[in-house]
Specification:
- It contains seven helices and 13 strands.
- The protein has 380 residues and is of the alpha+beta class.
- Helix 1 packs antiparallel against helix 2 and helix 1 packs across helix 3.
Amino acid sequence: MIALALLGANLLAFNSAFAAEKQACSVAVLSESIEATEIDKTIHSLSALRLKLDIAKTEGSNSIAVTALANEFRKKEKAFVAYLEQNDIMAHEQLIDRMKREIGRLQSGLHQEQQRENQDRSEHLEAIRSNPIDGTRAIFHRVEPGSSKMGKITSEVDITLTGFDMMATLTTQIIWKKIAELANAKLGSEIKIDPSHFKGDTRPVEQVSYEQVQEWLEALNALSLLGESSLVDVIPDHKQGDLYGLPTEAQWEFVARGRGQYNDTYLFLNDQSQFEDYAWIKTNSIGQTHPVAQKLPLFIDDSDFYDLYGNVLQWTNDSYDERLTGGRNPQGPDGYFKVMRGLAYNDFGMNARRRFNRSPLTASSYVGFRFIRKVKGVRP
């Protein structure tokens, strides 16, 4: 009996020791797995940074930006190599080989992304060719990222914006009407079908307050999310899930300055007498709005934008503050009064830089809007 008891005790001790050893092995394997995953992540991150540096050099980015990227890469690479060698994980030459393979995969991904962007661009150009910019449909142009100035000459701030899509024209009465009719029929909305004072399908919609515009845009987005197929009759390159909104003041001025290429007295001109070539203002409008896209456009990366000035003022999404906010994708602070930009048919070119502010309930014959695409939806 004593011998059996001792044997049982020895077996119990052996099983406990074996279980402890097994658990220790599992922890070690798990630890190694976590470490390997983190190493893979770091190699991916470092490779992406190296590719970004190479692209910046190829595209001729400014020397300050390239130097900053190069310094960041060297610092991170040095620290990572030291860690790998101290822990006897891999030599520097092995890391270089791993990074070459990872950069190859990243380049392949960029190529596929570029192919998708080219396809989107081809579809967009085809939409423009089959639907001329005459105000009957909402035609969007891509505004690429960049940096610019913003504000009055004496108080300019620097801004940097990511890319977005903006309408080539003001929102016309026919575009407003079609979306309003759809929303009223399919969503039970109660949007005014024909609010404008100066009637005409391709004249800008006006006498719409900031709040009315937001209600209209919310209805458009709801129809988009529901997959309303007839939206392509209004927005030719629309895809289900696309979301739209008012531009920020920074986005509006970024376009008005041609992505930073115009910094003249009147944003894109030094002679206000030239405004009559580009805009319907007090000196040539005969006191009324006119159909869109009849004046000269501003060209941005070969894309034509009409009526950025003149015809009607344009609501932006920002609340008014006397001090402008600079930086990356800036937006005004929360507040009651909303910012309008541009010029109206009853205004003068000298006010091109002026920042107008009105109650969100303001609805006048000199106030309209254009909208941007905020989020791209389902694209095959």
